[in-house]
Amino acid sequence: MPDIVMELHGMPVLVCAAEGPKLADEAAALDLIGEAMYAGAQWVSVPVERVAEDFFLLRTGLAGEIAQKFVNYRLCLTIVGDISHHVASSTALRDFVFETNRGRQLWFVTTPDEFAERLRPRTSGPTSQPRPEAGASADSGA
């Protein structure tokens, strides 16, 4: 199955097939970035099977290099699949995954459904307060 572009909650996503070149260096990242930009995608979703093992060894610097390439081109990257064995053996990777998942540039998710759910637009809740009228002061009693 080839890589395809699909829309998830209004967001164009390049969904990479499990078979294909490994995300193993900056050149591979640039190839995916080029493919995504050509297709008009804003996110690239890569199955864990296509990610080189060195990506998960933070001391190699590969994860940082690849993440930086995506940031430079204003694209977002999601790694989809079970990385629990990598996270269990590295506190640094566990912290990296936790921090990147708090942001909007690089996510690690277990399933495509989890990725789609994270892309779902959020609405503001009932706790938002209305702004005061122009010219009214908070202590004027008006």
Describe the structure.
By secondary structure, the chain is an alpha/beta fold. The chain has a domain at 4-98: Transcription Regulator spoIIAA (2-Layer Sandwich). It is built from five helices and five strands, in the order E-E-H-E-H-E-H-H-E-H. Helix 2 (62-72) links the parallel strand 3 (43-47) and strand 4. InterPro entries: DUF4180. It comes from Planosporangium flavigriseum. It holds the Pfam family DUF4180. Residues 118-142 are annotated as: Disordered.
CATH architecture term of the domain at 4-98: 2-Layer Sandwich
Poorly predicted ranges (pLDDT <50, ≥5 residues)? Answer: 125-142
- What is the overall shape? globular
Helical percent range? Answer: 25-40%
Counting DSSP E segments of at least 2 residues, the number of strands comes to 5
Examine the coordinates and then state which fold CATH places here, giving the name of the CATH topology of the domain at 4-98: Transcription Regulator spoIIAA
Report the major sheet: 5 strands, mixed
Helix/strand/pairing category: alpha/beta
Q: Which CATH class of the domain at 4-98 is shown?
A: Alpha Beta
**Looking across the biggest beta sheet, what order are the strands in?**
1-2-3-4-5
**Mean of pLDDT:** 89
Give the helix tally. Answer: 5
Helix/strand order, N-terminal first? EEHEHEHHEH
What is the rounded distance between the termini?
65 Å
> What percent of residues are in strands?
15-25%
Radius of gyration: 19 Å
